[in-house]
Design brief:
- The complex is a heterodimer.
- Chain A is mostly helical.
- Chain A contains nine helices and two strands; from the N terminus they run αααααααββαα.
- Chain A has one domain.
- Chain A is 83% helix and 2% strand.
- By secondary structure, chain B is an alpha/beta fold.
- Chain B has a domain at 2-36 and 78-88 and 209-289: P-loop containing nucleotide triphosphate hydrolases (Rossmann fold), CATH 3.40.50.300.
- Chain B contains twelve helices and ten strands.
- Chain B has helices spanning 2-28, 32-38, 90-97, 120-127, 145-156, 161-174, 179-182, 192-203, 222-239, 250-256, 274-279, 283-289, and strands at 51-61, 65-75, 79-84, 105-110, 113-114, 130-133, 210-214, 242-246, 259-264, 267-272.
- In chain B, a hairpin with a 2-residue loop joins strand 9 and strand 10.
- In chain B, helix 1 crosses helix 9 (222-239), helix 5 (145-156) packs parallel to helix 8 and helix 6 crosses helix 8 (192-203).
- Classes of the chains: A mainly alpha, B alpha/beta.
- The interface between A and B is medium-sized, with 14 and 22 residues.
């Protein structure tokens, strides 16, 4: 616990200290962000579709199928977008980071970095944490958008709602949450603070378990598993408390 | 590729096999003075002066005691070989010198300065004067051979790209690798012996005054073992670096050591020249030397 936060503190503290490992940062943005695009697009699209499908069945009983757009948008932006992107990245990237740093630990590459006068936290952890903090909100935006497009597809094809109406309800939903500083929709704030926090959770958990790997290749496997389990649980638990805090802050 | 390497290795060992064999025979003989007189010309007898590395009554324990009251020192240009059974804390000694670990009691002094109380950042600076060769070479497997050897230069020097390339070539040639062939390869494409040599090239890239080796010859065939041993000797003789070698390969230890420290039961059982060790009547040392 203590080590976890110490690592987080040191990793973030190094952001503004020379030398900067810009190349590592760019590489990690590619690794964490660009390469996760495929799975995020796929999960977002299908989540949006299934939301629209379920909503259509539910809303039909009230004759209110025109609100599908509102339901899909609200769920995607506030909850499913950030959480699903977080869980997918935890599985894909968190495990990868833990495995990589874990094998570097057991093959003494971490010691070698230390010996060559490089702080492994600065060189390895900081770029990864920073990249995750930047990329997860971006992935979430893409996830949200693709999900709403998926909802559009289903509501047009299966329910028969015109696209124009659908997108109007989407905007109604966004506007109904209220605005921060008059222009930023509260839903967007909520939907972007969450993935930012999740990015930190995933990258720091992965680096923590990776750097503290012991016991050879078996240990690497354990670190990987622990990373995915811990970051997934933390994402879901923190999501609840974050929602509660954000709701009380954002709603006047 | 592996044929190439073998031929390479043989060439080196042939060149110096006779000299090495003679040196070994002398080192093993009980006549210490004869051995000294017969060593290669140009080599200095163990130099005096203040110790470069000093371990002063070190004690260390994790769950159980690992080292108790361990002391030895290395003067400039000396090669200290630390030998002992597996699991006696030999590699721990290297980690203490690098200040990857801090002892519970005692001091580790490098260039006369106590490094046990340094902060993390200060320790990084001290480490820049040392080159370490890890047991498994510990090359960064995401980088090419060139980037691996260039790493310490990029981290700590202001050299431009041309100078870095020149330095990397020079170091790779020093360890008898063909720069044009290996530079762009990844560590995973190299054989064990080549990886060790790249590890040595990386360790010495920034011209350190101290070289540390963790089991430099373990897991290698006899020919490659000979090559690596000669490399360590070459580094000491041509560049005058102070070395600490952890090994349990007695044969190569006798070829390169100016002093041997035998670690047994958490203590230094013996610290002296190889000649003194060979001449010793101590029953443990006799057992340890076994076949020799």
């Amino acid at each position: 616990m203590q080590g976890y936060f110490a690592l987080a503190g040191r990793a973030l503290g190094f952001i503004f200290v020379r030398p900067f490992y810009a190349q590592d940062f760019v590489q990690q943005m590619d690794e964490i962000g660009v390469k996760s695009l495929g799975i995020v697009l796929l999960t977002g699209f299908f989540t949006g579709m299934v939301l629209a499908l379920q909503a259509s069945v539910q809303l039909q009983t009230f004759g209110a199928t025109m609100y599908i757009g509102r339901l899909v948008t609200g769920s995607m932006i506030r909850e499913l977008g950030p959480v699903l992107a977080g869980l997918m990245v935890a599985g894909r990237v968190g495990s990868g980071i833990a495995a990589q740093l874990g094998s570097m630990r057991v093959t003494e590459q971490i010691d070698a970095l230390n010996t060559l006068g490089t702080d492994p936290i600065k060189k390895l952890v900081t770029p990864r944490v920073l990249a995750a903090l930047v990329m997860l909100p971006i992935l979430t935006i893409i996830n949200d958008f693709v999900g709403i497009v998926g909802g559009n597809l289903i509501s047009t094809l299966l329910v028969g709602i015109p696209s124009g109406l659908y997108w109007r309800t989407v905007w109604e939903q966004i506007a109904s949450g209220g605005f921060l500083f008059r222009y930023i929709p509260n839903d967007f704030v909520q939907g972007l603070v969450k993935p930012f926090v999740f990015g930190g959770i995933i990258s720091i958990s992965a680096c923590y378990y990776g750097l503290n790997t012991t016991g050879g290749t078996e240990g690497v496997g354990q670190s990987t598993t622990r990373t995915v389990v811990l970051s997934s649980i933390l994402i879901l638990v923190v999501d609840y408390f974050l929602t509660q805090i954000l709701l009380s802050v954002l709603t006047p | 590729m592996s044929d190439e390497r073998r031929r390479d290795g043989r060439r080196i060992s042939e060149r110096s096999e006779d000299a090495a064999r003679a040196a070994m025979r002398d080192e093993l003989s009980e006549d210490a003075e004869g051995a000294l007189a017969d060593r290669e010309p140009g080599e200095q007898p163990p130099a005096g002066g203040p110790p470069v590395i000093e371990l002063d009554h070190i004690s260390l324990a994790f769950d159980q005691p690992i080292l108790e009251d361990v002391s030895f020192d290395a003067r400039k240009g000396e090669t200290i070989c630390v030998v002992g059974e597996s699991g006696t804390g030999k590699s721990t000694i290297l980690k203490l010198i690098l200040r990857l670990l801090v002892p519970e009691k005692g001091q580790v002094r490098v260039f006369g300065k106590d490094i046990t109380s340094l902060t993390f950042t200060e320790a990084l600076e001290v480490r820049q004067k040392m080159g370490m060769v890890f047991q498994g070479a510990a090359l960064f497997d995401s980088m090419s051979v060139f980037e691996n050897v260039a790493y310490p230069l990029r981290e700590h020097t202001e050299l431009d790209e041309d100078e870095i390339e020149q330095r990397v070539r020079e170091k790779l040639e020093f360890v008898d690798l063909d720069p044009d062939k290996v530079m762009e390869q990844l560590p995973s494409e190299l054989s064990g012996g080549m990886r060790k040599r790249v590890g040595i090239a990386r360790g010495m890239a920034d011209n350190p005054e101290i070289m540390l080796y963790d089991e430099p010859t373990s897991g290698l065939d006899p020919l490659t073992t000979g090559t690596i041993t000669l490399l360590i000797l070459k580094l000491q003789r041509e560049l005058g670096v102070t070395s600490v070698v952890v090994s349990h390969d007695i044969r190569s230890v006798f070829r390169m050591a100016t002093k041997v420290a035998v670690l047994h039961n958490r203590h230094i059982e013996f610290f002296g020249t190889p000649e003194e060790m060979a001449a010793s009547d101590d029953s443990y040392l006799r057992d340890f030397l076994g076949g020799y």
